[in-house]
Each structure stands twice: as C-alpha cells, then as structure tokens.
Design goal:
The chain has two domains: 78 residues, Orthogonal Bundle (Arc Repressor Mutant, subunit A); 149 residues, Four Helix Bundle (Hemerythrin (Met), subunit A) (Up-down Bundle), CATH 1.20.120. 72% of the residues lie in helices and 3% in strands. The protein has eleven helices and two strands; from the N terminus they run ααααββααααααα. A two-stranded antiparallel sheet has the order 1-2. α9 runs antiparallel to α10. The longest helix is centred in the middle third of the chain and has 25 residues. The protein is globular, with a radius of gyration of 19 Å.
Length: 245
C-alpha cells in the first residue's frame, strides 16, 4: 500500500489491504442495487467513488468477477452479472437444500452465544422495519435489512459447525444475493421475511431440528415465490446479453 492510497482510505488497518476494503464496498453496492445487473463498472468513475488508485480497484474488480457478481466481457470491460430465470431457479433450489441442512444441524449444535447473536440480528431487522416518511431513509433501511438478512443466514450456517457446508453456503450466496436484490429494494418481502426468521430462531432455540429444517426450506420457497414473480414481471436476462448488446 502506498502513502497515497493510505490517505484515500484512512480507516484501513494493518490486516486489511486497500483492495480488500474496496472489494467490500463494491460488493455491498452491487448487492444493494447501487449498480444494476448489466451495468458497466467504469474504472475511472469507481476510483473517484471510492477514493483509490487504479491498482487496488482492479484487484477488487477481479475479486468481484471471481465471486460471480460480475463478468468480464473481452474488449468491453467488467459488467455486473445478469442471470437467467433458469439460473435463478437453480440457485434457489440449491439454497433450499443447504439452508435446510444448516437449520437441522444448527438446532443441535448452536451455542448460546450464537443464538443470542442471531436474536440480535432479528431485533435489528425489526427496528429497521419500522416505517419512516423519508423515502431515501426508507431505502437505506431496506439496504441495511438486505445485508442483515444475509448475516442471519450466514450465522445459521456457522451454527451448523460444518466447514464444508459453510464454504458451499458462501459460494452460493453471492448468486442468491444478486438474484434477490431487486425484490428487496421494493420492500415487499421485508415484513414476511422477518416473521419467518423469528420462527426459525424459535425452532433453533427449542432445539427442534426437524422443525428448523422445515422452516428454513419453507422460507426459501416463499422467497422464491417473490423472486420468480418479480422476474416474470421484469425478465432477468442472461449474462450473454451484455456481450451481444
């Protein structure tokens, strides 16, 4: 890291590189819909947005492509990934299986501190779900709820205490988050999702493994109903549309 880069990001600390910090912010902006599917990620604009030089930005963009949130189109640049309806369906089918397994094992393996942590996430989501008059603040709250929702499911996966499952969960959730972000921006799913999270938390707290599995799978099925309806109303194009457009 150069002195110049350090002054751009004064919050950087010794165990994080500038590229890692930029990737975190870039990923957040993609997942909360600041950059839309199919949108080109222009280096010049991004260096100004994040206050960094091109070297760490290019590393962050490479990591975004590796995480499947973006694609590189030869001679055209890097674009936010677009996914087909069939790909979205396959992702949610896989998610239902993984989340169900995670819920089953989390019910018997979770520690008390992990359960408290999950409860704190639910409480934070409930607080942010209170309506506000300012539309910009409301959208900011929805963005934070989206990220907290990701955290909820990540914690459940951690509570299963299965390293392979957690690795697969992280791999899949980049695609899950990209597919669902357009639905979350409408706010239509927030209230029902919170209720389902609280039911899952209750089942985990009572150590009911089968109920936790069923609730996790049902939660994904309900989420897919929202996603698929939104996709049909405004079709999700395949990533190849970027290359051919």
């Amino acid at each position: 890291m150069t002195p110049g880069e350090r002054q751009f990001l004064p919050e950087v600390h010794l165990n994080r590189t500038t590229a890692e910090l930029v990737f975190d912010r870039l990923k957040r902006d993609v997942l909360t819909g600041q950059f839309r599917p199919g949108e080109k990620l222009v280096e010049r604009e991004l260096t100004e947005r994040y206050g960094v030089s091109r070297t760490p930005l290019r590393e962050a963009l490479k990591e975004l492509v590796r995480s499947r949130l973006a694609i590189t189109v030869p001679y055209r640049g890097v674009f936010v990934r677009q996914v087909s309806f069939d790909f979205a369906r396959e992702v949610y089918e896989m998610r239902a299986g993984l989340d169900g397994i995670a819920g089953f094992h989390a019910a018997t393996r979770a520690t008390r501190s992990e359960l408290r942590r999950l409860g704190e996430v639910c409480a934070r989501i409930a607080l942010l779900s209170e309506p506000v008059e300012d539309p910009d603040e409301q959208q900011e709250r929805r963005n934070e709820i989206l990220l907290l929702n990701m955290q909820f499911h990540r914690i459940v996966a951690e509570m299963a205490h299965n390293g392979v499952l957690l690795e697969k969960h992280d791999e899949l959730w980049s695609s899950v988050s990209l597919v669902r972000q357009s639905v979350w921006r409408t706010g239509a799913r927030t209230e029902s999702s919170l209720e389902e999270h609280e039911e899952i938390l209750d089942a985990l707290t009572r150590r009911d493994a089968e109920l936790a599995r069923n609730l996790c799978e049902r939660h994904v099925e309900k989420a897919w109903s929202f996603v698929s309806e939104a996709a049909r109303a405004s079709p999700i194009n395949d990533a190849m549309a970027v290359a051919s457009g």
